């Protein structure tokens, strides 16, 4: 083989060249293998498609869950914002009540001082007690007048004091009510913060799962594409094999064509060919190599045969397309044996040396291998004869 990348050339060459003398049993084996491969690929594709559909359902469910958490988080954020406004209002009320308490206390002290001043200014300058005011009366009538005045002042003062105390208690009660509301708002704030944190954590978990599922979907779709390509190639192989089977049957039923191929055989000593080929044992494998410095498989067979005046085509596909087909039971030393390895058709060739062995140039270089071992046996597709014995 020369250019390994020419995969599709190998498919088209199946009909035009490679399988001109492809035995029907080899066709059947290759067709069965490709049909089995196709069934396996289609099964794998169905499994991947099912998994992609399952992942798509998971993706939708996760997106819906994330949207639900987003809505919940938004609602909680609005509640937290409302709670902050309420807390600010309560603290403003508390501050205002504190200011009002201080003002009331100051007004009480002012009223008490004003009443005391009235008493002092009414009777005499300086600080005097109620008894002094009464004992300083000049007559009983003056005493009664003074007593009445003091009782009026005392009553008024008590009323003022009581009024202020009542107002002060109302303010204190209001302060306690506001503080209780603040504690309630603080508890609600803590609950909302915990709910928000939980929603964020669950949303993050769903987002991580979504990323994993989306990656799985992309991987599955990529695998689908690869499987579809392999299915198309395998279907092309099957079609090519079926077409080649028909072409081979037509060729095999044409005695004139078979006689022409047999007449083209060149006289040569197979033992001499094998002996000459064995001189190159250990020669390294070189892709596209056609000389003793390095051979690929078909370059090796072409070089050896050319030494004896037998000129065969360059590639393994072309070599398989010519010569006389030989059944496995009729193999003789000097026949070329062919294998289908990395591509459809004859992608590897060696020289049969007898006893189920061949000499060929493969990855390890020129060596002797068993034609029907566990590796080469399943890949064997047929043989061609170019020399008369």
TrEMBL record:
UniProt keyword list: Coiled coil, Hydrolase, Protease, Signal, Thiol protease
One BP annotation, GO: proteolysis
Database matches in InterPro entries: NLP_P60_dom, Papain-like_cys_pep_sf, PcsB_CC, Peptidase_C40
Pfam families for this protein: CC_PcsB (PF24568), NLPC_P60 (PF00877)
Keyword Hydrolase belongs to the record: yes
Coiled coil ranges: 31-58, 164-205
PROSITE patterns membership: NLPC_P60 (PS51935)
Family of this protein: Belongs to the peptidase C40 family.
Protein name: Hydrolase
UniProt lineage: Bacteria, Bacillati, Bacillota, Bacilli, Bacillales
């Amino acid at each position: 083989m020369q250019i390994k990348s020419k995969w599709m050339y190998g498919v088209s060459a199946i009909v035009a060249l490679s399988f001109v003398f492809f035995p029907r049993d080899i066709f059947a084996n290759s067709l069965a293998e490709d049909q089995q491969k196709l069934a396996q690929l289609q099964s794998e594709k169905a499994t991947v498609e099912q998994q992609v559909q399952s992942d798509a359902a998971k993706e939708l469910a996760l997106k819906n869950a994330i949207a639900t958490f987003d809505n919940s988080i938004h609602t909680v954020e609005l509640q937290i914002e409302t709670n902050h406004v309420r807390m600010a209002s309560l603290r403003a009320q508390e501050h205002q009540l504190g200011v009002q308490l201080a003002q009331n206390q100051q007004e009480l002290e002012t009223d008490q001082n004003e009443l005391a001043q009235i008493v002092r200014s009414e009777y005499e300058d300086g600080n005097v007690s109620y008894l002094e005011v009464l004992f300083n009366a000049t007559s009983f009538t003056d005493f009664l007048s003074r007593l009445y005045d003091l009782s009026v002042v005392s009553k008024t003062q008590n009323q003022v004091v009581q009024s202020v105390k009542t107002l002060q208690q109302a303010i204190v009660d209001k302060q306690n009510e506001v503080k209780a509301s603040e504690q309630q708002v603080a508890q609600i704030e803590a609950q909302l913060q915990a709910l928000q944190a939980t929603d964020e954590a669950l949303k993050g978990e769903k987002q991580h799962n979504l990323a994993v599922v989306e990656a799985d979907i992309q991987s599955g779709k990529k695998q689908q594409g690869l499987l579809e390509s392999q299915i198309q190639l395998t279907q092309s192989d099957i079609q090519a094999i079926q077409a080649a089977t028909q072409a081979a049957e037509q060729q095999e039923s044409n005695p004139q064509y078979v006689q022409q191929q047999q007449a083209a055989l060149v006289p040569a000593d197979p033992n001499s060919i094998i002996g000459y080929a064995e001189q190159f044992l250990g020669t390294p494998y070189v892709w596209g190599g056609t000389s003793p410095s390095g051979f690929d498989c078909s370059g090796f067979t072409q070089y050896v045969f050319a030494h004896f005046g037998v000129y065969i085509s360059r590639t393994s596909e072309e070599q398989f397309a010519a010569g006389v087909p030989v059944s496995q039971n009729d193999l003789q030393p000097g026949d070329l044996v062919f294998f289908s390895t990395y591509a459809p058709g004859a992608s590897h060739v060696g020289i049969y040396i007898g006893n189920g062995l061949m000499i060929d140039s493969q990855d390890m270089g020129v060596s002797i291998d068993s034609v029907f071992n566990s590796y080469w046996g399943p890949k064997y597709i047929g043989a061609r004869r170019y020399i008369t014995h």
